[in-house]
Amino acid sequence: MKDIESDFISESIQAIEKADNSLIELENNPQDLSKIDEIFRIVHSIKGTSGFFELKKLNSLSNSTENVLSALKNGTININSSVVSLLLESIETLRNIILFFKDNQKEPEDNFESLIDKHKKIVEQPKEAESSSAPKTLINLSPLSIENNSLRVKNEAVEKLVQTLADLVMYKNYFNEFTNVVSTNNYHFHDALSKINHTINNLQEQILDMKLQPIGLIWTSMPRFVRNLSQELKKKVKISFQGEQTSMDKLILEKIKNPLIHIMRNAIDHGIELPEDRIAKDKSEIGSIELSAYYEKGHIVVKIADDGAGLDLDKIKKKALEKGLFSEETLNSMSNKDLFQLILYPGFSTSSTVNNISGRGVGMDVVEKSLEEIHGSLEIDSSKDQGTTIYLNIPITLALVKVLLVESQNKKYAIPEINVIEVIDTDSIKLEEFFYDRNFVNYKNKTIPCRDLNEVLGYKNREKEFCSKNIIICSVRGGLYGLLVEKALSLKEFVLTPIPSILSAIQIFQGCILSPDSKIILILNINKIMHGLISNYAPEINEKFNELSNDSIFLINENQAIQTKYIEKIIEIEANKIKIINRKKFYKAGDDILEIKQLSTRNNNPARGSSNFKAIIVNYQTKKLILLLDDYSNKILNDFETTDKPNLITYNKKIIELIDIKKIVGRSK
Amino acid sequence: MSEEYIQFSINKKYFLFPVTHIVEVAKDIEIFNIPLAPKEIIGISLIHGKATIIINLTYLLHENAENIAKLDVREHYHYLVFSFENENYAFKCDGFKNQLGIEDNNIIKNIENLNPKIAQNTDGYTSINHHVYPIISPEKIIINIREKLNKKYS
Q1: A480 and A443 in contact (C-beta within 8 Å)?
Q2: Among residues A570, A542, A561, A568, which one has the least CA distance to residue A640?
Q3: Which residues of B touch A512 (CB under 8 A)?
Q4: Predicted local confidence at residue A140, as pLDDT
Q5: Concatenated DSSP letters for A279-346?
Q6: Is the Cβ pair B146, A502 closer than 8 Å?
Q7: So what's the pLDDT on residue A251?
Q8: Nearest chain A Cα distance for residue B66, angstroms
Q9: What is the pLDDT of residues B48-83, one digit of tens each?
Q10: Could you tell me which residues come within 8 angstroms of residue A601 by beta carbon, excluding any fewer than 6 positions away?
Q11: What is the pLDDT of residues A233-262, one digit of tens each?
């Protein structure tokens, strides 16, 4: 009996979601009477089974809903927005009664009389004149096919099967590693091994396929959601879908449903403009949201694209400044992509009004956290008045995870494959391609921030000896970052095991995997490790200066250095903006007009040039000036030696002159 | 009403632990150190196919915790594995004695007389033959560690 009851509940809920969609399609295409038949069949079936379970309220409400549907079928009433709204409300109530029954084994107290009365009134009202108005919401959702030749299997049974499979794959990997060590030329042995591997791979594919469900299943509720929300906000929005058959693990589907709803809510509330505003911008009055899903490099990308106003960079900067996340200078020099990612900070909302839909700044960080839980990631792209696109990168399954194993202090750690772009040998990188004590690296002509895993894990031994053999180029939120590791090992599939919740506070770990020899390997949370780093050059260097002690020096060239305590920041100055007044050169940096001093005479008159120059703003006892550099060596030193002369130090047995800032500033007016 | 407890010793002191929470007693486990974890956590280990947090109970209970903590990272002891909120934890013990059924009314809830570090991790204590046996509370241990972690990383 319990099984029949559980089947009734799950089948009814699925059918109700289908009825939801059919209703919205019907609203858009009132001539399509087949939709009324579809909904009628669903409600009729619920009515029939409710009688079997003696669910009187469900029976009576489905009966009166059926009356409205009959009236529609017979043509005694017309399809219009209010009829569709009433039917949606009825379907929602039917769903709630079923869910209440599932949790409480009884029906709710309410008799739903007011809803039944509404049904009566609408059935009795005289037929309206044919409505000629065009539908408000356009839907383009192809129905999902339901296979009839299926076998119902309990979730737990499939989960157990997947767990056994995961163990089998783990032991297969272990066995393969073992056979690499024990060398044998026996043909039969290798043939058998290859067949076992092949069979296990097939089995893995087939079993994991059983757990996969099409993303279209969670999209079915979206049209209704879009309809309700856009009506509430007096906006016009059409939604379209692509790739609804793209399948993933049922658990992942459940996990991404709420993040998806949140992103859609933001798109409608903040992204899509009011019809009059869209017309003023020369856009169609109907906004569009496109949901698509596709496979890419062994994972799934879910793309949510709207054609709304796009993210407002000025508002993002203002909010970031208010929240004290970054300085104005840093924000001004950040790339658009980096600025978009700021909306993922907790409590970050650029909306000036808070309503019951959004604007409280609670959400995008939660969206990102939900994705991290399933080892996924998120990217944002946006263009002013053209819209915003959010990409969710998610794995296909949670049973096995593909990771890159790396080593730090003789311990193995794992990096999700989804984050890994490339593994580079540090030997292949010239020293000058590292900047600032290896906090940046030049990767394909782009300067990207870099962190050392040993430092991240609290093993502060980097000053002693540089022992990283590899840099893992990682992708986080669409930006590139480098992670220096002692050794990159191999890319493999492992069995995922839940990380004990007590460790969730240590945010640099996002889970753990079991190695074939039953060892636990922690999975690194690259997103958190790179948190706060900006994939942008100069501002990061400036922030680095703030962190440095007063004793460090900045090597300007191989013979000269400056104490970092005098450096306010590094800037790039545009030659054509240099002003010459009374043979002195000046430049406007922020609100200050500062005199320019040169250390060498190689570029005698920078104001005549057309290129930009690197320079330092020095600050000595609140007096500031710009020191023009020929170039700088990108090196900050802490381990130099002082000499008996205050303006000379030695580094690597070479004598370096410390620039006398006091003297230079003194000469400046 | 009575509940079953097991007597275990740490540093020559005996404590009681509620049997209902115990999963097993493990030996020869391999402990993986967790970087950045506080001293209350020794590491993580795979016990019975489940990722299990190894708690440094000695550090949690002992007055002179700093010195004791260093001794604790050894792998060949008995580890009492217990379950709390569907997750497994374990801590090192020197040995076990008896399993006792103790009536509720024989448990003294006033823990002010106990050493403050022990009191923080107990629900009460009982007295047998003039010896005091603090009852270790799995819930309090975990809550204390969680608080410590949240404080460190919030």
Answers
A1: yes
A2: A561
A3: 44, 51
A4: 40
A5: HHTTS-SSEEEEEEEEEETTEEEEEEEE-SS---HHHHHHHHHHTTSS-HHHHHHS-HHHHHHGGGST
A6: yes
A7: 83
A8: 19
A9: 778 899 999 888 887 665 554 444 444 457 899 999
A10: none
A11: 999 999 999 998 888 888 888 888 888 888
Query: pLDDT confidence of B154, banded at 50, 70, 90?
Result: low
- How near does any CA of chain A get to the CA of B2, in Å? 31
In DSSP terms, A139 is beta-bridged to A239
Question: How many CB atoms within 10 Å of residue A411?
Answer: 16
- Gap from A248 CA to chain B (nearest CA, Å): 25
Q: What is the pLDDT of residues A588-614, one digit of tens each?
A: 877 778 888 877 645 555 555 546 677
Instruction: Count how many pairs of residues, chain A against chain B, have C-beta atoms within 8 Å.
Output: 63
Share above pLDDT 90 across residues of chain A, in percent, rounded to a whole number: 12
Which residue among A502, A509, A522 sits closest to B145, beta carbon to beta carbon? A502
Q: Which of B29, B36, B82 to mutate to test the interface with A (most CBs of A within 10 A)?
A: B36
Distance CA B129, CA B116 (A): 23
Write out the two tokens for A600.
């060498």
Q: Which pLDDT does position A77 carry in this prediction?
A: 83
Interface touch B45/A520, C-beta < 8 Å: yes
Helical packing angle, A113-124 and A81-104, nearest 10°: 150
Q: Report the C-alpha gap between A299 and A397 in whole angstroms.
A: 9
What are the chain A neighbours of B40 within 8 Å (beta carbons)?
none
At residue A413 the predicted structure's pLDDT band, cuts being 50, 70 and 90, is very high
Secondary structure string (H, E, C) spanning A15-55:
HHHHHHHHHHHHHHCCCCHHHHHHHHHHHHHHHHHHHHCCC
- Interchain pair A502, B50: CB under 8 A: no
Determine phi and psi for A481, rounding to 5 degrees.
Answer: -140, 155
**Three-state helix/strand/coil letters over A492-561:** EEEEEECCCHHHHHCCCEEEEEECCCCCEEEEECHHHHCCCCCCCCHHHHHHHHHHCCCCCEEECCCCEE
Q: At A517, give phi and psi (nearest 5°).
A: -90, 30
Task: Tell me whether residues A522 and B153 touch, CB distance under 8 A.
Answer: no
Angle between helices A250-266 and A364-373 (to 10 degrees): 170
Question: What average pLDDT does range A509-537 have in this prediction?
Answer: 77
Min Cα–Cα distance to chain B from A172, Å: 17
The verdict on a CB contact (< 8 Å) between B53 and A502 is yes
Closest CA relative to residue A88, chosen from A273, A292, A226, A200: A226
B35 to chain A: closest CA residue: A457
Sequence-ordered list of residues with C-beta below 8 angstroms from that of A90, at least 6 positions apart, any chain: A61, A64, A65, A68, A115, A119
- Gap between the Cα atoms of B88 and B48, Å rounded: 10
pLDDT at residue A145 greater than cutoff 50: no
Which helix (H) or strand (E) is A73 found in, with range? helix A56-74
Our measurement of the distance from residue A73's CA atom to the centroid of its chain's CA atoms, rounded to an integer in Å, reads: 46
A663 in Cβ contact with A607 (< 8 Å): no
Q: Does the distance separating the beta carbons of A501 and B34 come in below 8 Å?
A: no
User: Is the predicted pLDDT of residue B42 greater than 50, yes or no?
Assistant: yes
Chain A CB contacts of B37 under 8 Å are: 503, 506
Q: What is the mean pLDDT of residues B92-96?
A: 84
* Model confidence, pTM: 0.60
CB–CB of B26/B81 below 8 Å? yes
Confidence of residue A634 (pLDDT cuts 50, 70, 90): low
Report the residue from B46, B52, B153 with minimal CB separation from A507.
Answer: B153
Tokens of A628: 């023009």
- What is d(CA A358, CA B148) in angstroms, rounded to the nearest whole number? 34
* Residue from A499, A482, A480, A511 nearest A395 by CA: A511
Cα radius of gyration rounded to whole Å, chain A: 32
B32/A520 Cβ within 8 A: yes
For residue B29, give how far its alpha carbon lies from the nearest alpha carbon of chain A (Å).
10
